[in-house]
Amino acid sequence: MIVQLSGELIEKKPPFLVLDVSGVGYQVEAPMPVFDGLPALGTRIKLLIHPVIREDAHLLFGFLRDAERSLFAELLKISGVGPRLALGILSGISASDFALMVESGDAKSLTRLPGIGQKTAERLVLEMRTRLDGLGLSGDSGSSMSASKPDASTEARAGLIALGYSSSEAMKMVRKAAENADAEGVSAETIIRQALKQRMQR
What we know:
Layout: E1 4-13, E2 16-21, E3 24-29, H1 32-36, E4 44-53, E5 58-63, H2 66-75, H3 83-92, H4 95-104, H5 107-110, H6 118-128, H7 148-162, H8 167-179, H9 188-200
Antiparallel strand pairs: 1-2, 1-4, 2-3, 4-5
Helix pairs in contact: 4-6, 4-7, 7-8, 7-9, 8-9
């Protein structure tokens, strides 16, 4: 079973990329956050791989972090969720934001993702709650922000939810506040204060 590939990046056309590993080209499908973090063609990279073996095809799905690969694998265990839908989820939202929606029971926000209806969203919330433990999603980057920023953003979202805002409202508020905050050393408290200040100015 292929679980990791290291080689030269020779093609990237979302959702596909191709790695040259010792003269063998491997086509890998990946969510959009992976493409956001890819270097230039000709650069050597390492991808964590989740293979999906079918009678008519051997598919490879690639990720930069084990948390995303683990979440992808858990999503495939949910009835009605196949590789394409799981890939769409991870392309439309970061793993930590997905975890936050599930933990807060925000099925409505999940329905905004492509291919997810109300029943599927409710099933995801119900069944994924017990599967999130141990996936290490609290430090998910999902963007080009510094390593400390996602942790603070996640804490800020949780704080705004505790203040009565919905998960989707909290995400929008935090995203806008984080854009106006310093990327280095920003705290959850700073983001919350900025988010509330901007909310009051609307």
